[in-house]
Amino acid sequence: MIAVFHKNGLPLTDEKGSALKRPIAVPRCTAPLYVPLSLGGPAQMAMLATDTPVARGDVLFQDAAGFPTLCPVTGTVRTYTAVEHPMYGELICAVVAPAEEPGEVQKLEIGSHPDKTEDGIITAARRAGIVDELDGRPLHEKLTEWQNAGYHIVADAVEAEPYASSAFAVLREQGEAVRRGLKAAVQATGATGSNIAVCAVSPFIKQALSEKFSEGELYFAEERYPVTVYTAEKTELVGRIGVQALVALHDAIETDVAPADCVITVAGDGVRESQNVRVPFGTPVQEVLRVCGVDKEVAAVIAGDVMTGTLLPDISVPVVPGMTCLLVMSSVPVAENGPCIGCGRCAEVCHKELLPYEIGRRLENMHYDELSFLHPEECDGCGACTWICPSARDVMYAVLSAGETDGPIFLNWGGNEDG
Ligand code: SF4
Ligand code: SF4
Question: pTM higher than 0.70, yes or no?
Fold first, then answer.
């Protein structure tokens, strides 16, 4: 089942709004954290006994490949529990009660014995337990994969969707750490070059970043969603890393501190004003909403942005790497689909050069035998066709359904089962 209802019915215009101009807030979170043990693999057994005091940076868990989960706060491990997370599946989480005071930070002891060789940087990424917010993959795995393979490395702050601005906020406030993290990633991989990619959906973004970075460091994507070009270089070997992961890499190497928190855009019509907040990994989403002043019932919370987000069936789930935006909705968005007017815009924006309206039409008319010529299986679910459709039809759902189904299916094209 493809969860798509939130792709329709929400405003798709630029909604970055006040979050762009406000500094990152650092509210005090007091609720117990649900720290996922080993995001990279299947649920694992815990290591520490319950009621064990822990410091920020202590190893809570290490998987068979030596990839650690480090404690994001000083506190006490109360218990362990399984959480069904819509972004990662089943996670075993350590429930950690934060201490009243921040307490000591357990150092990684990387920077005090600086080993700035290629392998030393990759080892630092592994020991710091860095997970890239772009794709949920351990950073050291990506760096290893790209080593000496001719990659161009991009610090990806594109955020082409309407609400998210957490990457922009990190770039603006921690630009030097991003720059140095990127330099380390280039060194570790022997990359051919690098740049920071941004989608300047607002002139404010362009101006703010142009003051911080030189022209050669930045690449302003000319496309809107979905962005497929991240550099002016003519190369297909582009390795993208999230800016929060790059700050974490810099911190691991230069300050001996592992990442403990992440920056999230909290937006949508269920909040008074959108803002970017910094919270520890493992903070329950409902605690994030509480510290952001959401004191009323909300109808829906979407982890992610309009096009790629996931509806949260339960807001007690923890914040994990990759949850860079939370959309808080006061009502469940409902699509109002109109008929296809044959404008062709869905085909114009399709970066796979498919004919989404034609695939939908053949489905509607049950011409299943002709579908294979249109190659719906090549659709990667970017959602641009749904985004652009003036009749608010869920074109992507039609194409994905056609691509996933071998035999005839019966589809209410333009309807939306979830909406
Ligand atoms: S969702 Fe699929 S059909 Fe629609 S624009 Fe993207 S790749 Fe093309
Ligand atoms: S964008 Fe929408 S209305 Fe236009 S051709 Fe595609 S499906 Fe039809």
Answer: yes
